[in-house]
Design brief:
This protein is 37% helix and 16% strand. It is elongated, with a radius of gyration of 26 Å. The mean pLDDT is 95. The protein contains 17 helices and 13 strands. Helix 1 packs across helix 6 and helix 6 packs across helix 7. The chain folds into two domains: 275 residues, Rossmann fold; 84 residues, 2-Layer Sandwich (formyl-coa transferase, domain 3), CATH 3.30.1540.
C-alpha cells in the first residue's frame, strides 16, 4: 500500500460517459480502489458507443467499445439497480465502506432515492461526495442536462476556436475531443484530493459541486483576462496566435509544420535560417508588437519562405537553430514517436475477453508513488458477486435473491 498514493482510499463511482469516469480513472491510477456502479444489462452508455470495439485474439469484436476503454481502467464493475429500494439499501451498505462517492446524475435525481449527500452523510459522516453536472447544483440552468458540445459553445470556447471568419472554412469549431468533460474530470479529481487532505486534518467530509460550464469558463485562462483587461472579446485566429507572430502552422513542401517563435531572437534565427535575414531588420517586423501589427504583410512572406523546404528539413534546421517548431502528427506517428514511447505513454495489460488490451498511460511521473495499472477496464458486472460477498459479507442466498429480482 505504501507505493500507492491513494492506496488507503475507496471510491464509489456512480458516474458514466466521460467527465466522472475520467476523474475516477485518475484516482484509480494513483491507487484508489474504485467500484463502478452500472445498470444491470446495459452498463455505462459508452460501452456501446462504437465501432470501433476491442477485438479478441481471433480478431472478433468483444462488444467493449474503445470509447469505454479510454476512461475506465483500474476499476471494478458492479451492477446494481439503484432505482429499487433493495438496490438503494445495497448502495448505502457500500457507502459505509467508501471514502468518496462520485455521481453525475441530474440535479435532484438521487435525492428521490435517498442517495444525495445529506442522506448518505447520515450513513458515513466523513463522506466526500462529488457531484458533476452540466451547470451545477444551483442557478437558473441547474435543471438542464449538460453536454460537452453545448458547453463548449456556451462557455466561449468555440468563439475563439476555428479559422478566422473571413477565411475559407471560417466559423466556430469545437475541439476534437470532449475538452470540457475531460477538464471537468481533472478538476474533480483535484477537488477530491483536496477534500481528502482536509478530512485527514479535520475529520470532516464535504460536498463538491463541479459544473462543466464553470470549468469551460475558467479554462479560457489568458483569453478571459485579455477580454477583462481590454473590454474587447477575442476572435477566432485558427492556427495563428492573437498576441505572438509568427506562432502558427505553415505549409512546407510536403506537409505542414508548426513554428512557435516566442521572442525576437528566435524570429531572427528563423528568417536567417530561411535565407531572408532582411526580414529581421525591417522595422515593421523587428519586434513582436510590430509583427503583430503587420501580420498581414509578414505571414505571406514567411509562408513563401517555408514552402521551399520539406517538413523534415525545416524541423532539423530549426531545432538545430533553437527555434521552437514541431510536426503535426497523426496518431500512428504519435505512438511511433520515440519520446512518447520512452515516457511509457502506451502500455499493454491482460484483458478477460480480448487477451491483451493496449491503453494510454498516465502522464503523472512520480518517484515514490507512480501510477499503477492493475486492472483493465472491467466487463459489465465482472466484480459484482465478489464485492457483495467479500466487502459487504453477503451470503450466497442473499446474492442469488438480488440476481433473481434483477437488482444486480
Amino acid at each position: 500500500m505504501t507505493d500507492k498514493a491513494l492506496g488507503h482510499v475507496r471510491v464509489l463511482d456512480l458516474t458514466r460517459v466521460l467527465a466522472g469516469p475520467w476523474c475516477a480513472q485518475n484516482l484509480a491510477d494513483m491507487g484508489a480502489e474504485v467500484i463502478k456502479i452500472e445498470r444491470p444489462g446495459r452498463g455505462d452508455d459508452t460501452r456501446s458507443w462504437g465501432p470501433p470495439y476491442l477485438r479478441d485474439q481471433a480478431g472478433a469484436d468483444t462488444g467493449e467499445a474503445a470509447y469505454y476503454l479510454a476512461a475506465n481502467r483500474g476499476k471494478q464493475s458492479m451492477t446494481l439497480d439503484i432505482a429499487t429500494p433493495e438496490g438503494q439499501a445495497v448502495l448505502r451498505d457500500l457507502v459505509r465502506h467508501c471514502d468518496v462517492v462520485l455521481e453525475n446524475y441530474k440535479v435532484g435525481q438521487l435525492k428521490k432515492y435517498g442517495l444525495d449527500y445529506d442522506s448518505l452523510r447520515a450513513v458515513r459522516p466523513d463522506l466526500i461526495y462529488c457531484s458533476v453536472t452540466g451547470f451545477g447544483q444551483y442557478g437558473p440552468y441547474a435543471a438542464r442536462a449538460g453536454y460537452d458540445f453545448i458547453v463548449q459553445g456556451m462557455g466561449g470556447f468555440m468563439s475563439i476556436t476555428g479559422e478566422a471568419d473571413a477565411l475559407p472554412g471560417g466559423g466556430p469549431q469545437k475541439a476534437g475531443i470532449a475538452i470540457s468533460d475531460l477538464m471537468t474530470g481533472m478538476y474533480a479529481a483535484n477537488a477530491v484530493l483536496c477534500a481528502l487532505l482536509h478530512r485527514d486534518r479535520t475529520g470532516q467530509g464535504q460536498a463538491i459541486d463541479l459544473a462543466l460550464l464553470d470549468v469551460q469558463v475558467a479554462m479560457l485562462a489568458n483569453m478571459n483576462t485579455c477580454y477583462l483587461a481590454s473590454g474587447e472579446a477575442p476572435v477566432r485566429w485558427g492556427n495563428a496566435h492573437p498576441n505572438i507572430v509568427p506562432y502558427q502552422t505553415f505549409a512546407a513542401a510536403d506537409g505542414h509544420i508548426i513554428v512557435a517563435v516566442g521572442n525576437d531572437g528566435q524570429y531572427r534565427r528563423l528568417v536567417e535560417l530561411g535565407g531572408r535575414p532582411e526580414l529581421a531588420d525591417d522595422p515593421r517586423f523587428a519586434t513582436n508588437p510590430a509583427r503583430v501589427r503587420h501580420r498581414a504583410q509578414l505571414v505571406p512572406l514567411l509562408a513563401e519562405m517555408i514552402r521551399r523546404r520539406s517538413k523534415r528539413e525545416w524541423i532539423e534546421l530549426l531545432e538545430a537553430g533553437g527555434v521552437p517548431c514541431g510536426p503535426i502528427n497523426g496518431l500512428d506517428e504519435v505512438f511511433a514517436d520515440p519520446q512518447v514511447q520512452a515516457r511509457g505513454m502506451l502500455f499493454e495489460m491482460p484483458h478477460p475477453s480480448a487477451g491483451r488490451v493496449r491503453l494510454v498511460g498516465s502522464p503523472l511521473k512520480m518517484s515514490a508513488t507512480p501510477p499503477r495499472y492493475e486492472r483493465p477496464p472491467p466487463l459489465l458486472g465482472e466484480h459484482t458477486e465478489g464485492i457483495l460477498s467479500g466487502l459487504l459479507g453477503y451470503r450466497q442466498d442473499a446474492i442469488d435473491a438480488l440476481r433473481d429480482k434483477g437488482i444486480i
